[in-house]
Amino acid sequence: MLFHPRSGSMRVLCSCFLLMLTLVLLSAVTVAQDVETPKDEIFVGYQWLHPGGTVPSPFGNFNAPTGMKLPDMPAGFGAAYTYNFQKFF
């Protein structure tokens, strides 16, 4: 294999070109996804989690762990209201 002193600068040039191309394409994608910001938003949700798994109990013996059944997360409702004064505030 031949040593070429300019091969390192070519890699840097290609890397810079790919970085600039990536930045241009990402900025075009973010501008394309600009949607109208709503003035008011209301969110209502419900969640419940049943993991149904067994994990090692905390502060137990590291070499011989004892199992602990994960409890269910209590069921719950949530609500939120948002008022947007401006597009960016």
How does this model look, in words?
It is a single chain. With 89 residues, this protein is an alpha+beta fold. The chain folds into two domains: 1-34; 36-89. 29% of the residues lie in helices and 30% in strands. The protein is flat, with a radius of gyration of 27 Å.
Structure summary:
The chain has 89 residues and is an alpha+beta fold. Helix content is 29%, strand content 30%.
Annotation keywords:
two-stranded antiparallel ribbon, 30% strand, 2 domains, 89 residues, alpha+beta, 4 strands, two-stranded antiparallel sheet, 1 helix
Structural topology:
Blueprint (H helix, E strand, L loop, with lengths): L6 H26 L7 E10 L4 E3 L10 E3 L3 E11 L6
Antiparallel strand pairs: 1-4, 2-3
* Count of discrete alpha- or pi-helical segments spanning 4 or more residues: 1
- Broad structural category: alpha+beta
Determine the fraction of residues in helical runs and give it as a percent range. Answer: 25-40%
The total number of structural domains is 2
Major β-sheet annotation? 2 strands, antiparallel
Element-level helix/strand string:
HEEEE
Strand order, biggest sheet? 1-4
Q: Which band does the percent of strand residues land in?
A: 25-35%
End-to-end Cα distance, whole Å, is 59 Å
State Rg: 27 Å
Low-confidence stretches: none
| Number of distinct beta strands | 4
